[in-house]
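lol ok so funny story. i was supposed to be doing the assay writeup but got distracted and ended up predicting the structure for this chain instead. priorities right. anyway since i did it might as well share w the group, maybe its usefull for someone
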Amino acid sequence: MKVLLHLTLSLYLFVVNGCNAIDPNNQSNADNKIIMTIEPRLDVDENGYYHLTLDRNNWQTIHRVSGHLNYDDGSPAELVKVYWLSNLYWVLGDTLGYIVHEGLTDDLVYVTYDTTYITGFNGMEVPTSNQASYSNAEGEVNNMIAPVQTMIGDTMTLFWSYYDEGQLYEESIKIILE
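and the output, tada:
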């Protein structure tokens, strides 16, 4: 019983001292401001506009825009939610797409026997940017944009925002769709 009491007391003192110990070399990130740098992977002109050439063979052009969130001391800011928004949308027609039904004949040859059209989406707006993402352990954050062919000649404004200690930070870039 005496040994059990001694072990319990030792464990209690270890936990209390371990929790109260302050390491002067371990600074909290609470005093640091988060800074986001954007990395759109696009050419930029002398006016600060980025340029994205749209794929003429596909309806949508998929492109990844990245960034890094770091505290002002240079350490990465992990698990920060970044909200994304684009000024451009496109509208769906009545048919979203179709499903081709295939099957095997008695001779084990694939044949198409029916097509089902996916309808009922007429007038729905489709955004050209994902809505949110989180920074990883290295502070990297990614967002996919997907402008469509009818937007050739338009300028997309890509907005992003995040909270740091309750304060909202917002920024944007302009991307000319060519």
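The two ends are 80 Å apart (CA to CA). The chain has two domains: 32-88+128-178, 93-124.
back to the writeup now i swear
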